Amino acid sequence: MRVDSAHGVVEATRQQVYGAFVDPDLLVAWLPPSGMSGRLERFDAQDGGGFRMVLTYDDPTDAPGKFTDGSDVSDVRFVELEPGHRAVWEVDFPSDDPALAGTMRMTWTFAAHGRGTSVEVVVTGVPDGIDADDHAAGLRSSLDNLARLLD
Length: 151
Fold this sequence. Notes:
Shape: globular
Number of helices: 3
Number of strands: 7
Strand content: 35-45%
Strand order of the largest sheet: 1-7-6-5-4-3-2
Order of helices and strands: EHHEEEEEEH
């Protein structure tokens, strides 16, 4: 089974990092990777809640979308929200492409690291249609965005 992961350190407290996962304005500011912008169609910050984010490519000519020619959509369910410690998401991609079918699980953990916070994401159940190198770059970009936002 394929497992994708990324790690970064953010110069903020674990509570501040967790806040960026449950505040819709902050989430939309850091989660979209470089070359994309995001908007939320719904957001419910509680266990069993979740969000739907539409990600739009700045230039779709080199990276066609999975949902439309210029966009991707992620439907996320909050499986577990543990303030200051972790967030577990189940992610589905609405698409007619069978290579994108299935539910991906993203486990984000936050641990004290000096005066900041170590943030790790481990992703299991990644659909075959998501390129491993592109996914790794996207995860890294999102973590870099989170660090810039909170540093």
